[in-house]
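Hi everyone,

Forwarding the result from last night's run.
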Amino acid sequence: MFSPRVLSRQLRTGASVQFWRNMTAAKSTKRKSGASRPSLAVSLMGRVGYAARGTIYLLIGISAGRTTLDPGHRPGGLTQSLKLFQHYWAGGIVLVLLAFGLACFAGWLAVAAVYRRDHPGRAHYALVAGMLGDAAVYVGFVGSVLGMLFGAWSGGGDDELQSWIGWLVGGVPGRVLVGLAGAIVCGCGAGLVAWGAFGDIEGPLELPPAEKRLVQPIGRYGTGGRGVAIALVGVFLVISAIHSDPHDAHELGGVLRELRGFSYGAAVTAAFALAFVGSAIFDFVIAGFRRFNPRDP
């Protein structure tokens, strides 16, 4: 049997050990809580960004659908589809929110590019460069949307693009530059098609397997359709460089309008309309159900 003195010493020792265990656990929990704060901010940034991009894709899809039914309608691209908000105070609020959302999306891409470690070697550097390039593109879109809001920019379109192309294709170096830009845009579109067909487009979605199987084909079709549309913009740029004719160059809305004039053009524009609507739906799903951890691809 233990003496009262020995038993008291053991109880005090056990209480001390338990006390230090509790203190260590509390410190660990505090560290985890502190580490989760930036993660929460990054997660919110990603969700707002995908929701904003999905809204713009939805507007493009609606505009393309109108072109399918009405040949006289001029479809809009990434910024031209927002012109309906340009002249009303409520539309100004929408433009501010969309600009903020696109800025969040650019921020999420930049943070994810810095923290990704899933591809070793040269593939990692190529992936980081691509994501940072995407972030820079969306920063440019933020500037365009804010320019529309303050009346400093009309929203682009074929006229503005063709004026720049006309200034460049007057000489051989300019034609080479336009052709090279068209080839790069075409390659980016082809890469997006390949990623939509074979890549992990959804990331870590917190959805049951049945719902994942339902939304994945929508996302693949939308991503591939966007890739084809971007590739066609590049093709028209290359044709413009070859012919030295700026009127052959078209941005996204102009490409859809050109396609509408071909045989079965209504079916083609309807397919692109569904692709952009599908991309919008998929972006909304990602905004709601994805785990936005920059260290997890």
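The CA atoms of residues 45 and 248 lie 38 Å apart.

Cheers,
N.
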